[in-house]
Amino acid sequence: IGKYEVTQELWEAVMGSNPSSFKGSRRPVELVSWNDCQDFIRKLNDLTGASFRLPTEAEWEFAARGGNSSRGYKYSGSDTIGDVAWYGNSGGETHAVGGKSANELGLYDMSGNVWEWCSDWKGAYSSSSQTNPKGPGSGSSRVRRGGSWYNVARGCRVSNRSSSAPDYRSNYIGLRLCH
Questions:
Q1: Positions of the chain with pLDDT lower than 70, given as ranges
Q2: SS3 state of residue 57
């Protein structure tokens, strides 16, 4: 999973334009729908010959929690949100990626800055224990995780889930790549 959220610099290099409200080459791209992200990933893979994708919700949560090195924090990398996240304290905008402390895996901004699209459709969690569960095969909304600059602290907890229609865009939603 990517160390940082996809920046405006990378998005513009691949797509030729920058849809973001809060301009800055090292800021996360935002105002991108799940569908837009799929177009970006296709073009990026064509340019690089790689196989980038959005993480599943399970992959995202495992990484945000710090993987096997997890210390069980409420936010990604700390119980003190201000150490790791741009949230309601952000001045009403995104910030350059990597400006706060990383989590146990060296990943930045998994709590706050922008919500991050996941590949899964939104569905209820299974009541049984699972390893790397897959989301439902269809649905009306796609999962997003991590909270954003717009949220209060509670919205940026690693356990918090949200979702939106695949064509929804907002200046508090971006993405992180998985390989």
A1: 125-133, 136
A2: helix
pLDDT in the model for residue 135 = 73
Report whether 87 contacts 153 (CB < 8 A). yes
Q: Residue 119: which of 29, 11, 38 has the closest Cα?
A: 38
Nearest to 28, CA basis, from 53, 3, 45? 3
97 CB-side CA count, 13 A: 24
- Centre a 10 Å sphere on the Cβ of residue 104 and count the other Cβ atoms it contains: 17
**Residue 97: other Cβ atoms inside 10 A:** 25
Specify the pTM.
0.93
d(CA 103, CA 88): 20
Instruction: Quote the pLDDT of residue 178.
Output: 97
- The pair of structure tokens assigned to 51 is 């196989």
